[in-house]
Write a structure and sequence with these properties.
The chain contains 2 helices and 5 strands; from the N terminus they run βααββββ. It is α+β, with helices and mostly antiparallel strands. The protein has one domain (about 10-90). β4 and β5 (about 75-90) form a beta hairpin. The radius of gyration is 13 Å and the shape is elongated.
């Protein structure tokens, strides 16, 4: 089991994707600390957590969003390589 207290370091790529895809640093960190842990490609770890959204995103209203950081677990930290965001329950 991962040490959820480890520091979290975001790559530049992850930060760019995070904001472009509609999530915050706090949501990504919360997904890592309290979300579901899943295996990912190349020995990485995906952490998945759903959040109540109830807001517009790119012209559509969404009820929820799921934030999924992809992480390399290092001995002393979590290194976030990218972040995926999935919006759920869209209405025009």
């Amino acid at each position: 089991m991962a040490d959820i207290e480890k520091p979290i370091k975001f790559s530049r790529h992850a930060l760019e994707n995070l904001f472009d895809r509609g999530a915050s640093i706090e949501e990504a960190e919360q997904a890592i600390r309290t979300g579901e842990r899943l295996p990912a490609q190349k020995g990485r770890i995906a952490f998945r957590k759903s959040f109540c959204h109830q807001a517009m995103w790119k012209g559509k209203f969404y009820q929820a969003k799921q934030v999924m950081p992809i992480v390399v677990e290092e001995p002393d930290r979590f290194a976030v390589v990218t972040v995926y965001v999935f919006f759920i329950g869209g209405v025009r």
